[in-house]
Write a structure and sequence with these properties.
The chain has 138 residues and is an alpha+beta fold. The protein has one domain. It contains five helices and four strands, in the order E-H-E-H-E-E-H-H-H. Strands 2-1-3-4 form a four-stranded mixed β-sheet.
Length: 138
């Protein structure tokens, strides 16, 4: 079983990506007791340097970093997010299923496919000067 994150976790998402912003927005609207902190990597003031992760790596796939500095990428980042909702049977089940030995490699492969096509997905329409934020009125 993969490591459990130490909350809160910072979730690094591309706010300019309509699919990404909608997904992270969904999680933030749920009761997460402060366990999720969203960081929009599309803002001009986002600096990847303190995390020692390249901007290209952040853009390529979803990242989450827990309180201990442990980095979760792609499928593992989703699992970390889902574990922020211990009272949700659905998220608890998804976190369990995604960590199964047969399912995990398939999920990773599917996520890599999504990550490759993500740059071609529609951009958010409520962006000003290339900056998009969840909940921002456009």
């Amino acid at each position: 079983m993969p490591n459990r994150p130490l909350f809160p976790i910072r979730v690094f998402y591309d706010g300019a990506c309509s699919v990404c912003a909608r997904e992270i927005g969904h999680y933030l609207r749920q009761e997460h007791a402060g366990k999720l902190i969203a960081v929009d990597i599309s803002t001009p003031d986002f600096d990847p340097e303190p995390y020692r992760i390249s901007r290209e790596a952040f853009i390529y796939e979803l990242h989450a970093i827990d309180l201990n500095g442990r980095v979760y990428r792609g499928v593992d980042a989703f699992r970390a997010i889902w574990l922020a909702f211990p009272s949700s049977k659905l998220y608890r089940a998804l976190a369990f299923i995604i960590s199964r030995p047969v399912i995990n490699p398939v999920a990773r492969l599917l996520y890599k496919g999504f990550a490759r096509m993500r740059p071609y997905l529609p951009k958010r329409s409520n962006c000003d000067n290339g900056v998009c934020k969840i909940g921002r009125k456009g």
